[in-house]
Write a structure and sequence with these properties.
Quinone Oxidoreductase, Chain A, domain 1, single chain, GroES-like_sf, 15 strands, ADH-like_C, Zinc binding dehydrogenase, 27% helix, seven-stranded mixed sheet
């Protein structure tokens, strides 16, 4: 039986990885087996790993970029040798912190020749989180049918990977003005050429600066791409002050469990007139959860299937920029350190990426 090396992640008391030799997995009927060239870390990795004792972790990697090796019996779009990126089914075996990984065919998409594997590893989870939030939850105009009237949007956390992709999609959708909140990553956000206004939260007057940027315009749509440090409270205040009495909408990503600045977040009551949805990217492959019914998750799966393929076109035409990345030394040996950096909030305006071939001692 052919084997490979994989790294499992656990998080007590600090982030650690365990290297082990396991059989190369076989794809199920609707799955693809990919030889991983590069992968990246996400905040979700430390959130999940904190639930596992040392030595009892799982392979947390979800961003796959590599070459198709084998496809399941129902897969007709891909063949061995195809350059692809893919979103692994979270919290299941055969993630991307390994030489080979498994992904649903529906969340696999081609990488055009102008996109490196390292850049491709920044896309699957973060970009789809942004797309689900804007289009499935907030119901904003799609890029191929952009807004015909002025539609302001607030994107909180524009320097994060999710926020940066949301900014690019918002511009492609013809939304305006596009207001974002950032700090040390403001120069990167500016380089995207998507936001019309960048509010620096370090000034300590986020609400006032957002309202000033609006210039009296009604704001009815907001996406909180960070859910940290009372971001939701700032957004709620802005929406209440600027919606003109009309119903307004906010979508938030899953809030981090270590956010001591948000002691009341679980009991937070949104002001009247604000409708909240929450994006959990697992619905991209049809997984229902607390905030999405099975029917809604199936609709998200169908949307993700189409939008991943649309992203291949945007990437090929240069209309979508992969997130900046920093390749970590030592390949998968650096995964624990990378996830720890995310937990310690030492990463801004970049993704941490690992090349599998850089891992010492692999076959």
């Amino acid at each position: 039986m052919a084997t490979m090396m994989e790294y499992t992640v656990s998080g007590k008391p600090s982030i650690k990885t365990t290297r082990r030799e396991v059989p190369i997995p076989e794809p199920q009927a609707d799955e693809v087996l990919i030889q991983v060239v590069a992968t990246g870390s996400n905040p979700k990795d430390w959130k999940a790993s904190r639930n596992h004792e040392e030595g009892q972790g799982i392979n947390q990697g979800d961003d796959i970029a590599g070459t198709v090796v084998k496809v399941g019996s129902n897969v007709w779009e891909f063949a061995p040798g195809d350059r692809v990126a893919a979103f692994h089914r979270m919290f299941t075996p055969h993630g991307s912190y390994a030489q080979y990984a498994i992904a649903p065919a529906s969340t696999t998409f081609r990488l055009p020749p102008n996109i490196s594997f390292e850049a491709g590893a920044t896309i699957p989870l973060a970009a789809m989180t942004a797309a689900l939030a804007l289009y499935q939850n907030l119901k904003l105009p799609l890029p191929w049918n952009p807004a015909r009237t002025e539609t302001p949007i607030l994107i909180y956390g524009g320097a994060s990977a999710v926020g940066a992709y949301a900014l690019q999609f918002a511009k492609l959708s013809g939304l305006s003005p596009i207001i974002t909140v950032a700090g040390a990553g403001a120069d990167f956000v500016r380089s995207l050429g998507a936001a019309t206004h960048i509010v620096d939260y370090r000034r300590g007057r986020v609400v006032e600066d957002i309202l000033e940027a609006l210039g009296g315009k009604k704001l009815r749509y907001a996406f909180d791409a960070v859910s940290y440090n009372r971001s939701y409270a700032n957004i709620a205040e802005v929406l209440s002050a600027s919606s003109g009495g009309e119903e307004s909408y906010i979508d938030v990503v899953d809030p981090p469990s270590d956010d001591t600045a948000n002691p009341d977040r679980e009991n937070w009551q949104w002001p009247a007139g604000i409708r909240m949805t929450r994006t959990f990217v697992a619905s991209a492959y049809g997984a229902a959860h607390k905030y999405r019914t099975q029917q809604e998750a199936q609709e998200d799966r169908d949307f993700a299937y189409a939008f991943y393929r649309y992203m291949s076109l945007l990437l090929a035409e240069g209309k979508l920029k992969p997130h900046p990345f920093e390749v970590q030394p030592g390949g998968l040996e650096s995964v624990a350190n990378g996830i720890q950096q995310l937990f310690d909030r030492k990463v801004s305006a970049k993704k941490l990426v690992y090349r599998i071939a850089d891992t010492p001692g692999l076959k």
